């Protein structure tokens, strides 16, 4: 499959904090290649976690990106406005018995002592609820217990065997390469949370397909997640984009910048007197010779 004649890229931050230099790198990287290929960079606000996302962070995202010199088509897609789209995709998986309700808490999963961890370091789910009888599920729902819904990874891989990831630099002269995905290393991932009617994995593949995204450029911290994304694309019959995973911006201790670790934000740098040109230069985006390493 070739890229669309006018390729669509996207930058998709979550408004649960201020953007930092890592976000700036990803946005500038994506914008550069969208322009180089005569395409478009969409802005998507991934705000499904309505408990942590804040309107002021949305406005800060717009402000920081405009300060960097970026623009994007309107309207911006807010994931929190499209839960029906994600529920529709989930219903298709449920109709094929590819998901099941899980009543376990995080503490119970840790106490169960599963067989290792997933690529993000979380305990692999031991499958406690996978084979609950329908009557037991109904009894627990009737008792008011809340459940998250997990993908039955073994059943999914029987349906969509040998998922592959198509990778390429976002360049008209770059030839895509294919590598085997390994979704099983994630175990039975959560597709619908107890408190939110979707998950990152489900929402992102639905959005990319609905928005016609043909090339996904994102950081290496999401490299392993692509295994689950291409599996879901196969299960749902969605067109797989090409993927490029770029380097991460690290702090002085060689750790990935993170909102949760209170990494210095673009707003902090602006208050210190940094200009947008200085940020671009610091990240290697001199207009004449950007360094994409």
Automatic annotation (TrEMBL):
Keywords: Aminoacyl-tRNA synthetase, ATP-binding, Ligase, Metal-binding, Nucleotide-binding, Protein biosynthesis, Zinc. Residues 10-274 form the Glutamyl/glutaminyl-tRNA synthetase class Ib catalytic domain. GO terms for biological process: glutamyl-tRNA aminoacylation. Pfam families: tRNA-synt_1c (PF00749). InterPro entries: aa-tRNA-synth_I_CS, Glu/Gln-tRNA-synth, Glu/Gln-tRNA-synth_Ib_cat-dom, GluQ/Sye, Rossmann-like_a/b/a_fold. GO terms for cellular component: cytosol. Gene3D superfamilies: HUPs (3.40.50.620). One of its GO terms (molecular function) is glutamate-tRNA ligase activity. SUPFAM superfamilies: Nucleotidylyl transferase. Coiled coil: none annotated. Belongs to the class-I aminoacyl-tRNA synthetase family. This is tRNA glutamyl-Q(34) synthetase GluQRS. It comes from Pelagibacterium lacus.
